[in-house]
Automatic annotation (TrEMBL):
Keyword Nucleotide-binding belongs to the record: no
Protein name: Sigma-70 family RNA polymerase sigma factor
Keywords per UniProt: DNA-binding, Sigma factor, Transcription, Transcription regulation
SUPFAM superfamilies in UniProt: Sigma2 domain of RNA polymerase sigma factors, Sigma3 and sigma4 domains of RNA polymerase sigma factors
Domain called RNA polymerase sigma-70 region: residue spans: 7-73
GO molecular function annotations of the record: DNA binding; sigma factor activity
Organism the protein comes from: Enterocloster bolteae 90B8
Length: 159
């Protein structure tokens, strides 16, 4: 297994993006990202290699986010928060447009479409990994992503 520093360098941005889609706040996303990697170091012995390291880290991050919500007095219900989003051809194509504007359009998508878009574009995850993280099928992740991409392209055309 890679050293934790290498794992952080490889997956830190993706975990931060994953948490940012849920928290909608950079400060909390950063705090939970740090806690995710702390917990990963603390429980590295529990990683059995049955899933990719990125999927394992996302599961830790998701559990930390749930724990955070449970501790808050004034928060959205957990079910609503659950629905709150590769260097690939898709991400390269999006990079040709104004990144800030595209991210605004992606951020405007409803959940879970937004989260799927972030996991694919920012997190470099496969549709299989996204499906696993979201507790859905690979096909669901693929369809959700392409519907989100169509919406972003349509909205970008209006600009």
């Amino acid at each position: 297994m890679d050293s934790m520093e290498e794992i952080y360098m490889k997956h830190g941005k993706m975990i931060y993006g994953f948490l940012l889609t849920r928290t909608r706040g950079p400060g909390l996303a950063e705090e939970l990202t740090q806690e995710t990697f702390y917990q990963a170091v603390k429980h590295i012995g529990g990683y059995k290699g049955e899933s990719s390291i990125s999927t394992w880290l996302c599961a830790i991050a998701k559990n930390l986010w749930r724990d955070y919500l449970r501790r808050q007095k004034d928060h959205v219900p957990l079910d609503e928060a659950e629905q709150v989003s590769v260097e690939s051809a898709e991400s390269r194509a999006f990079c040709l447009w104004d990144n800030v504007q595209i991210l605004k359009l992606v951020h405007g998508l409803e959940d879970p479409m937004r989260e799927v878009m972030y996991l694919r574009l920012v997190g470099n995850l496969t549709f299989g990994q996204i499906g696993e993280i979201m507790g859905r099928s690979e096909n669901w992740a693929r369809v959700t992503y392409y519907r989100g991409k169509e919406r972003v392209v349509k909205e970008a055309g209006k600009l």
